[in-house]
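Page 42, continued from yesterday. The earlier attempt failed because a stray header line got pasted into the input along with the sequence. Redoing it now with the clean sequence only.
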Amino acid sequence: MYGNPGTGKTHIAIGLGIKACMEGFSVYFTTVPHLLTQIREAKTDKTLQLLEGRFRKYDLVVCDEMGYVGFDKEGAELLFNMISTRTGTRATIITTNLPFTRWEEIIKEKVLCSALVDRLCHKAFMVNMTGQSYRVRETQKMLKNLE
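This time it went through. Structure tokens are written below.
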């Protein structure tokens, strides 16, 4: 899911995750920055294979907020490897404000960026969430009611 901030990407992703839980599927929700921290800590603790195994087994993983934080080469490689464990086997939802054409701004390694986008796009449903932020609309409505 990609599009402007405040258009409901996270809200819909959480809703899909809740519905999947209600149907008996295992779901993991994380932000991309938090996931990267977990991966780095697991690498330091020498428990990365354990984390990858758990990550691979979830029926659905929701990775929220891709693009808010840039990655160094090691971070990009670690994230790529983690997401690649799910490619073609399990469902993954990524939410982002950036179109794929701008992912090289956060993943500086061009080949790695292309490979990650390639894996995420393969057999994927792209949901473009355009429009004005619902937060901005609610604020404008509230201010108008105060007049």
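Notes: The mean pLDDT is 93.
Reminder to self: strip header lines before submitting.
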